Sequence to fold (978 residues):
Amino acid sequence: MLDEQVAIVDVDPFQWRRLWEAIFPAGAMEIYPGAGGKGFIFVLHDQGRVLKAVHTVRGRLPIAQVDDARALAEELAREYEADQVLIAEKGALQRFWDQAQLQADPALDWDEYVMLVNRMRRETEGLVVHPPEPAVPISPEQVSALAKWLFPGEGYLTFAVFEGNQPWTSALLGFNRGRIVTISTLDALEPLGLQIQDWRRDYPQIAALTERKFYRPVVLGVYMDLPTFQQVVQAEDQGQALVQAVLAGRVIVDPCPEQLSTFLRS
Amino acid sequence: MAVSVGYDGLYLDGRRLPIYSGTVHYWRLDRALWAPILDNVKEMGFQVVETYIPWSVHEVVRGHFDFGRRTPEKDLDAFLSLCEEKELYILVRPGPHINSELTYFGYPARVLYDPEVMARTARGTPAVLPVPPKHFPIPSYASEKFYQEVAVWLDAVCPIIARHVYPRGRVIAIQSDNEMSFFFRLEPYDLDYAPGSIRLYQAFLRERYGGDLSALNETYGTDYADWDQIEPPREFRGERKEDLPWYMDWVVYKEYYLIYGLDRVQQMFKERGITDIPVFHNYPTAYPTTPFHLPWTEEKLDIQGIDIYPHKEDYEYVKLGVEYTAHTSRMPFIPEFGSGVWFWFKALLPEDERFTTLTNFMHGLKAINYYMIVERERWTGSPITRDNRRREPYFQFYQRLNRMLHEHDLASFRKRSDILLLANRDYDRLEAAVQLVSPPSMWFSGLPGLSRALLASDDDLGLGDVIQAEKDVWFQTMFKALALAQYAYGVSEVALSLDELKRYPAVLVATFAFMDTAEQEKLVAYAQAGGTLIIGPRAPRLDARMRPAVVLGEHLAQPVGRLAEAVVQDVPLRAVDLFDEEPLLSVEGKAAAYVRPLGQGRIVHLGFLPPAPVTPQSVATFARLLDGLLARLGLEKPVTSDDPTIDVTLHEHEGRRIVFAANPSDEAKKSIIRLAGAREWKDLWTGEALSGQDGAISVAIEPWTVKVWEVA
Fold:
């Protein structure tokens, strides 16, 4: 889905930061992780014999044996208060890492490789993460399939969220047969004279200028205000929340590909 | 050399040039915009720019390169000439590795996918770097085939660079490779087990043991008949201290491997005519413990720097890294400091850059390159966009910063550090050696991050203390407690030379059951020359090969007892040794810490472990205890704040004094800053003048703010 030569250009740092913070919880993906949170428990064992058991805040834990890793993970999380528990059998970790290296087929896109490794990890006996990862409303595989469905040829998705009439965050995504080939933001359109005074009235400028800038049609445009965006992002079922906001007219979808219109009508 | 290296900058024919530089990637910018963009760069106050030179971008097919004949933006010679016309000095980084968010990190894919070039894991698989937008196999810097390919690239690019080397042109320094770090896969038994690397390891051992195979056999308890029979460890299975040298030699080899690679690339530059300018390199981390080795690297290269991309919340991390490099490097330099970030990272805002940049100078940084000062693809948050617009909040910050740095010549000041806190590399190597598993960087796999401390064995291996765990508790506690106690201190490591150590009135270093003999002798010599050497908790009785070696121990008392825990001044000290000495710290009528004269100086032995785990509360109580001990030793506090969470530093130069104060928190704070003899305080950022009484001023410091005053 992510082209290996993807062009990522004119990314507004303020809009990018807001999008990042809306998507990732605090502390996620930090390169210099802080000491926040309740801590993390790691138990490494060799066929049941504990080699290491540690809580990142409280220190070493008095555990000598792992029999039922899942039950132990739940018990540790409860007893010692931790954000996350990982119980890993040494051989399982090693097998998983070896397989991850061997499966790095150059024909795979990066995101396909990531999905493969994640699946391998979930299927590796002996690696227990607690709490289990929450079910995502839409899996990476489904996102990829959706992109191919919406963008069978070349075209753009334009997306913007407004605070008042100021862009709060935005993304211009160029696709080619379902693959992302360009990532940008409204910053790219500024030199072309983008002027938003009333976003509900002026949003068509975004598609028009995107087509001028990147020489490709805009296939899908999605625009909303900040309260709606926050409501969608914070919803338990984000997909459902988005559809309801569209149907209620709080999200403008324009242009909207025929296949998506049909889906929304249904 | 026409360009030489000083602590405070590069010297061009003896004239000092402070290195405040910014990165511009010529090939990623419209050629027609090069000139106006460079004008904008100059308008921010920069005199130096930096650029990578990307192998994969210039290579058309193997041995054929486009340096502007096909694509005007690839005309390196023209870009360097234009910089010279604009009177900008230039730092160049021709790789071969450049990262630069390029797919395949600037290597041609054909090189990476050559099986003879690939690094190998402990189980013989290729080692993959799973970085977006494309994973790729990691190359081995011990592969001869790899260097044959690199030679083809350097044969093409070096003649162009050589034409612009100072004094013929304005290229004043060159970087060897980039962030050499096994591609961020730092764990000891992960890679590189490629055939070329095994041979290099065997040659390294031969050198390390002076060609004496029997010495190695004696150390390892083996009976190898030849060096090429020696196999490296592929996982840790040691059970006693005598098993350690085999593993620790592999850890040292991995330091050697990186330096070997850097030196080899550097020699290739020199063989191709680039001889008159310093060679530098950048670590991808602020605090470079094993497999990095800054002092050792600077025996080969001229400057070894650190890279940091911090948000404002990373204050402690920036402080530690900068303090370390300021007290360890020949020229304290950050070759890449975040001016914007790569696309898959949380963007840096102007408030991040303002706070962390000033934090650098507060803690003693002398030279910096802002990466990137001009935005380009796969990057966000630079002061100038790729179409030469200004991102005003960023632009104005750099303009103002450069004005302040130049007007007040901040590079000429030296941070005052009365106490030098040393990391003990032997123990960092031990921690690496006893890793129970060596995971590659698989952050995307859904597993939580697994730090080295998490993966280290908890076995003391017969050394008395679990050194690999306790050394971190000791160092972190001291680092934070010295700050709270408001002493003027810096950070380095035991590999620092004796001459450098002698600059500091006091040196503080953890010592456990073993320690390299030469390092012990150096510390003794430091004390004998008049220094205050503060060590603890133990007197080493073994060298790093686990042979008896009592050097420091000759000058220390033997313990007469041991308490598992002793609460002193509300501090739960652990594993407390007791001595029949005049107590510096008394526990149950005995000394838990004592002082002995040594030559013209003295040795102070703190015979206990600090509280664990390290928490804000444990550090706060320990800081009070430490403060009392250091006061009894007569150590001074040149500058203080009445609020210990306001960090303060003092910088001096020929009678002039500059004070920095940082508020690394979300709350505005009021503080009384005190400096003996200070009357007039001039804020170098705002120009505001304050008058102090009795050497003190009362100031309000906004959240995430560093204040800078020149004090008279």
Remarks:
- The mean pLDDT of chain B is 96.
